[in-house]
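Module 6 notes. Inverse folding takes a fixed backbone as the condition and produces residue identities as the prediction. Think of it as a translation problem where the source language is geometry and the target language is the twenty amino acids. Below is one complete input and output pair. Work through it position by position during the lab.
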């Protein structure tokens, strides 16, 4: 089993609450306050889980400048008060930031018994194959 430090446990909690608040904010018709709280909790939780230095190294790499600017710009736009535009920017930045991780995630999900069979359905399979094999999602 993987052992976590206390700060990583706190980070997992903050990240989990951040995802919850983001999801709940979208369910409640893009509530500005919930989305802002979710963004702050998610980013701070990520910093706790992987550490401040690694967080800065991840976000501020040369080839991820565009993705980081879209993601953090979306967070800023949500905090300013335009939640729909901010969430669209965040989602685009999120996909650009984590596009290298999607093939790994798809391969892992395909090995899970129920989810793997769902990903094998005809309509879903083509989309998942496209995501799972490409490293460049524009």
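Target side of the pair, the amino acids:
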């Amino acid at each position: 089993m993987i052992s976590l430090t206390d700060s990583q446990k706190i980070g997992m909690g903050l990240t989990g609450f951040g995802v919850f608040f983001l999801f709940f904010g979208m369910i409640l018709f893009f509530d500005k306050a919930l989305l802002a709280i979710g963004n702050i909790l998610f980013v701070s939780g990520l910093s706790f889980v992987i550490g401040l230095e690694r967080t800065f190294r991840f976000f501020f790499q040369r080839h991820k400048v565009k993705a980081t600017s879209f993601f953090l710009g979306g967070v800023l736009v949500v905090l300013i008060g335009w939640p729909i535009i901010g969430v669209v920017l965040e989602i685009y930045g999120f996909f650009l930031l984590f596009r290298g991780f999607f093939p790994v995630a798809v391969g892992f999900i395909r090995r899970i018994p129920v989810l793997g069979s769902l990903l094998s359905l005809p309509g879903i399979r083509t989309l998942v194959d496209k995501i799972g094999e490409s490293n460049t999602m524009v």
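Reference fact for the lab report: The mean pLDDT is 90.
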